[in-house]
Amino acid sequence: MKIFIMFAVIIVIIVIIFSSFFFIVDETKQAIVVRFGKIVKVAKKAGLYTKMPFVDSVVYFEKRLLLYDIAPEVIITSDQKRLVVDNYAVWRIEDPKKFYETMRNVNMALTRIDDIVYANLRDVFAKHTLDEIISEKRNEFLAEITQKTRKSLKEFGVYVVDVRIKRADLPTANARAVFERMKSERYKIAAKIRAEGEMEARKIRAETDKQVRVILAQAQKQAEQLKGEGDAEAVRIYAEAYSKDPEFFEFWRTLEAYKNSISKDSILVLGKEIDFLREFVGEAGSEK
Hints:
4-stranded antiparallel sheet, 21% strand, 8 helices, 3-stranded antiparallel sheet, alpha+beta, Tetrahydropterin Synthase, Chain A
């Protein structure tokens, strides 16, 4: 029994000593081996690695993307507006050797990232107005901030993937005044658009009225022309009919005159001396 216990203890000691020669790096990590404060090995890929037992220490770092939610800061724009910006940065440890030599740990890195991002955010936004910052151009400004931050943090073994803004608000004291100014500007723009629209409408109405007058004048001219041609044709027909039988034509014209001038309630005074009524009493002027 004692031999078995001693054998088990020896096996455990051998396993412990043997395991102290190796360390494992998984897919989500990267590591460095430090010996007496000096980096002797960098393990960026997953796998099994060797080390000196009791002398080397292994420091692991995250290999995945890291999110740093930066505290809201006040930014002053080029038109002297105060803007409270709440932003974040997505980053990763690209070079664990540089990172360990310059930052040592993640907390130190977050402090440096905070300082650099805020400085770049302040410098870029200070060149632009509030309207530009809240417009679609904001993505261009953020891309510029990301590039500057990435360049500044490269020497620390940090790669900045992106810098984004969660929200940008005006300070409470200024929000109402800026809102009123923006509303006033929108009213001015709306009034200008309405005035331009009314002017355009007047032009369209004037042009339409002009076209209507021209069309009516042309129609009136054509109507008068057709009427004149019709009257001339009527006169020609009447003259031609009169020349064929003057007496009948005279009789027909007299009957038409009776029809147009004598109504149902008319009272007639007949006499041979009235030439107009000769068809009623016979010929006027001479007795037969």
